[in-house]
């Protein structure tokens, strides 16, 4: 259950201010079918995070525990620093919009997640916990927790809570977890 909770909150924090949040806002403003946009986000995230989790578990089973400790610790720190960089996204690529709210969202979100912070964070969670079901479930839920409100209430939320403040808090938390993991006092590695 620790894998689920950690994955959920890590991915939700990582997603704050990310380019895929902006993509969710753009798609929600482009399509009136908000439920189809959310379904597309879910499908793209599920596929992307299944692949990420499989890769992370394979890495954990292939590498020594000491190497895994360093990878996880340094990855948390890198992730924390990466969160300080605001995500950017180009205007929607018109060729995908012809597939409708669900199709365009699934395609564009899947592409946007490749090499994204949340994909890397999902790989790190999989390396750390090696619990496929809980990491996938938590990471998908975390991404949805960060993006679904944007789809339905994006413009109002952005005006009330600056993304930069949320990003800085999440950045500090990831850096602290990384240092604690490297010192051996952080979350125990399997």
What does this structure look like?
Keywords: Membrane, Transmembrane, Transmembrane helix. The chain crosses the membrane at residues 36-61, 67-84, 96-112, 132-153, 165-189. It holds the Pfam family GDT1. This protein is mainly alpha-helical and 190 residues long. It is built from 9 helices and no strands. α4 runs antiparallel to α9 (163-183). The longest helix has 29 residues, at 34-62. The two termini are 14 Å apart.
List the helices and strands and how they pair.
Layout: H1 2-15, H2 19-30, H3 34-62, H4 65-82, H5 94-97, H6 100-113, H7 117-129, H8 132-160, H9 163-183
Structural class: mainly alpha
State the shape.
globular
List segments where confidence is low: pLDDT < 50 over at least 5 consecutive residues. Answer: 186-190
Proportion of residues in extended strands: under 5%
Mean pLDDT: 82
- Biggest sheet architecture: none
Number of separate helices: 9
Descriptive labels:
190 residues; mainly alpha; 81% helix; globular
